Amino acid sequence: QAMRASGPVKPKVLLGGSAALTTCAFKASDREELQKLPAAIVLLLEIITNPGDEAKLQRVAVKALGCTLAALTPHAPPGHVPDVDRGVEALIQ
Known about the structure:
This protein has helices at residues 2-6, 11-27, 31-36, 39-49, 55-72, 82-92. It is mostly helical.
């Protein structure tokens, strides 16, 4: 929630949120907890694909997306979590 509220105007919130999600993913004890984490990917993709956002914010969002995906991909095989798949495709592009 903090990433959505403040991230677009405070890039450090995006990185901090990504770091927090990484910790959550590594400590997640059940599937339900893990299912909440890809929501951040949607926000980061919105920032990355919005041509109106400044370049610095987009660079920070790409970095945060990479960190978030690094934490989530061990828990989400290809084809099982569409937001993770979209995030990986965005990084490849």
